[in-house]
Design brief:
Length: about 800
């Protein structure tokens, strides 16, 4: 019957008494109608051996009681900032940011920044887990970050080639340990030659540096004899079960029909091989299923073990490791037992087109045929005519739709590597716990490790594509490669492609559809000329805040022609993206998965790069403007959802997580701010129309307060409330602007109101024409803001991601940090 949703039988654990060698009496038997993630069931595994080494590996460490120890101040070759000064103090070194270290931002504000670095012997960065920095400050230092390898001195950019994680600084004058991942950064290549530490503030400040430790990966696994972690090989991250050789894990398991074990085998050191073996024991007889020595630390040895001979029967499944060096770490990547599909839960594909504006898709009425495949998909599925992202760019929007929590509730933006709070669960975490095989396959790290979206993912790739305009080709290849090695169902994959994201380099045969080669080259020349005129090392994406007005005149660039050409390039990349989605759907049909798949095509924000030519006030375009936040939302599940429907009700990306969980018959999060769209999709009651909210906030480095805007689309009206980090009273604002004297500047308007019927691009606020209505929306948004702040108290960032308190204590006990 259409619309019926079944609650699956998830991981039924039957307590049985067994007498097989190597297993305890009373052990639980794992059985499930969904894939079984062995790493999630250590509580029922019998564990033998797997003892960490008695002598842990040594860290690299610099203690500054005696001086700088080879650390030097870094130059900023762009000429904007002088190097900081280093002063010896009793227990360390003091790094001072003075007026000489400040520089001016395009908005006129000044910032202070500084960096220090040390030369390293050429290291393989992936051999190292964390950098632990002990420091203190009582000044307005906002964050510290890791950087890697000095640039060539003639490059007019920052001092380092690669940036790593940033972390918030605690400004209470006490000593704190800040732990950041050593093996992460965007597009890193080559050996590790220098380690850099960068920090910044809004005012002259100092940071006392007491010690720096670089901790080897083996220490990451010293917390427990056996455990679960995430391990990277290049930009591919896998969820791993780790043991220490020699070690053995026994699982009592009821094998599904056509059963198989899929697992990646990995080691940390090439010079210390590990022998991996898998055995099955039935009625006292043991059969070897895998026996292999692994020494390649650069890649996973992906293996499939056939269990089909025991389909429907109970076995003792043994995972065992041996090594000549006791305590050597052995990695079992995503060890998963699966078989013939036995659940009615759908596969879930969340396909996010990064910067994919609905305004530029023919499925939404655009005047160019940019999305013929989505046009056809719309006939098989459901189209939401007015769907919106919750903010204007990837880092602030993706964590929100992954958790169904607004950006301010998650803590706002302070650095590029802000984690999702520990208490918030991602979509991958929800579905992994329900037995789904899970993958996050993206070409934008804001949708991956930079936002903690590796949590719950068996497989994560967040490496950029080259060129990004054909990222979907790489991401689809990664997906089918993952499905080949992890074929169990149901599965969840979050795609986030960058095909239509700037810079636009359309691929054949789509290049030339809307822009001839002469105008294309003219566009690229104009981009370079604008960058030169604005004093930038390279071009920036087109938007209302990309370049100052005078740069167009200096560069001799026709702004209207520039944006018109940019729109044509964008449309060509959209046509390529659409074609790739069509090929994905065709292949899903060919392999027989289409009818069992819930496909959601959406975007993280609109085409914020494309309408800047019309923006009246650079930097003031509100999130209620359709080109900023109106996105596609097309949902298909042939087995359950009637096709050809189009819904005019306004909906939000924050509704996606509740929708997926509802359709799959899974429990809802304890806290969610979206609502399920399943009642609309399945024709049942329970959905209520609500205003769409926009929530985008930034952390003030001085105060820790949030500043930004809370917006709302409510029928005809769009309202945006500005929230400042430190709100002045009306009396203070009047005094600061010169009182009521003639010519005194008016205080900024907190609430702007837009008439979406008569001003669809939200170009002009009508708050003065409708003062009562403006006051009403200001009150409503203030109440919502208070509610968001209250809800945010339930969520907190630890500031020590990715270590748990137990791991932190272990590192302290090993002497790695104090």
């Amino acid at each position: 019957m259409r619309g019926r949703v079944l609650v699956p039988a998830l991981f039924l654990l039957n307590l049985l008494t067994v007498g097989c060698s190597g297993s305890p009496r009373g052990a639980s038997v794992l059985t499930s109608d969904t894939p079984i993630h062995l790493e999630d069931h250590l509580d029922v595994a019998a564990i033998e051996g797997s003892e960490p080494p008695e002598t842990p590996p040594e860290p690299l460490e610099w203690r500054f009681e005696e001086g700088a120890g080879g650390w030097l101040a870094a130059d900023f070759p762009d000429g904007k900032t002088r190097p900081l000064s280093i002063e010896k103090i009793e227990d360390g070194i003091r790094l001072d940011l003075t007026d000489a270290t400040s520089f001016e931002l395009p908005n006129g504000r000044r910032r202070h920044r500084g960096a220090v670095y040390v030369d390293l012997p050429e290291l393989n960065r992936e051999d190292w887990a964390f950098v632990a920095v002990r420091a203190r400050t009582a000044d307005s230092v906002g964050a510290i970050g890791l950087h890697f390898n000095l640039r060539e001195p003639d490059v007019t950019r920052g001092p380092f080639e690669y940036a790593g994680e940033w972390i918030d600084v605690i400004n209470d004058g006490s000593i704190h340990t800040y732990i950041m991942r050593a093996d992460w950064s965007w597009d890193y290549e080559g050996p590790w030659r220098q380690l850099g530490i960068t920090f910044g503030s809004r005012t002259p400040s100092s940071l006392d540096l007491l010690s720096v430790s670089v901790i080897p990966k083996a220490a990451k696994y010293a917390a427990e004899p056996v455990g679960v972690a995430t391990e990277a090989r290049g930009q591919v991250h896998r969820r791993v079960l780790y043991t220490h050789a020699p070690g053995r894990l026994d699982y009592q398991l009821k094998v599904p029909e056509d059963g198989r074990l899929d697992v990646g085998l990995g080691v940390l050191r090439a010079d210390i091989p590990v022998r991996f073996s898998v055995h099955a024991t039935v009625a006292g007889e043991t059969q070897a299923l895998l026996d292999e020595v692994v020494s390649d630390k650069e890649a996973w040895a992906q293996r499939s073990v056939d269990l089909s001979n025991w389909g429907g029967r109970q076995i003792l499944l043994t995972l065992e490791t041996e090594s000549e060096n006791p305590g050597t770490v052995a990695l079992w990547a995503a060890p998963t037992v699966s078989g013939t599909r036995a659940t009615e839960m759908p596969n879930v594909i969340l396909y996010v087109i990064d910067a994919g504006g609905a305004e530029y898709m023919s499925v939404y009425g655009y005047n160019r045929p940019t999305t013929p495949n989505l046009d056809r998909l719309a006939q098989e599925g459901v189209v939401f005519e007015y769907a919106y992202s919750n903010s204007s760019w990837s880092k602030t929007s993706t964590p929100s739709f992954a958790t169904s929590l607004h950006h301010s509730v998650l803590g706002g933006y302070k650095t590029d590597s802000d984690p999702i709070p520990d208490q918030a669960r991602t979509m991958a975490e929800h579905l992994h716990a329900a037995g789904y095989q899970t993958a996050v396959i993206v070409s934008n790290a804001y949708a991956g490790t930079m936002s903690s979206l590796d949590r719950g993912a068996d497989f994560l790739r967040d490496e950029g594509a080259e060129p990004n305009s054909t990222s979907s080709v790489e991401l689809h290849d990664d997906f089918w490669g993952w499905r080949e090695t992890s074929p169990g169902e149901p599965y969840f994959v979050h795609f986030q492609t960058t095909d239509v994201h700037w810079p636009w380099k359309p691929a054949s045969p789509f290049a030339g559809m809307y822009l001839d080669s002469e105008r294309r080259e003219q566009f690229y020349e104009w981009e370079r000329a604008l960058a030169d005129a604005a004093g930038r090392a390279r071009p920036r994406w087109l938007s209302h805040r990309a370049y100052p007005e005078e740069a167009y005149e200096t560069a001799g660039v026709d702004r209207i022609a520039l944006f018109d050409a940019g729109r044509a390039l964008y449309d060509e990349t959209m046509a390529h993206q659409d074609w790739q989605i069509g090929r994905l759907v065709e292949r899903l049909k060919a392999v027989g998965e289409w009818d069992n798949t819930l496909l959601i095509v959406a975007a993280d924000h609109g085409n914020t790069h494309g309408l800047g030519v019309f923006d009246p006030l650079p930097g003031q375009v509100p999130n209620v403007a359709p080109h900023v936040t109106r996105i596609p939302l097309i949902i298909s599940w042939p087995a359950r959802i009637a096709g050809g429907q189009r819904f005019p009700q306004p909906v939000s990306m924050i509704d996606v997580l509740p929708t997926v969980l509802d359709i799959a018959g899974l429990p809802m999060p304890e806290v969610q701010q979206g609502q399920s769209l399943a009642p609309l999709l399945l024709g049942r009651p329970g959905w209520e129309e609500r205003p769409v909210l926009f929530d985008e906030f930034y952390v003030d480095w001085d105060t820790g307060a949030l500043e930004g805007a809370l917006g709302m689309i409510d029928g005809r009206w769009g309202a945006v409330l500005r929230i400042a980090a430190e709100e002045e009273s009306e009396e203070e604002a009047t005094e600061s602007k010169g009182g009521e004297e003639e010519g005194a500047e008016e205080p900024p308007v907190r609430l702007k109101l837009y008439d979406r019927w008569n001003d669809p691009f939200a170009l002009n606020s009508v708050h003065e024409e409708y003062p009562d209505l403006a006051e009403e929306y200001e009150t409503r948004l203030e109440e919502l803001w208070e509610a968001h702040l209250a809800l945010a108290q339930r969520f907190s960032r630890t500031g020590e991601v990715p270590l748990t308190p137990e791991q932190l204590q272990t590192l302290r006990s090993l002497g790695y940090i104090q």
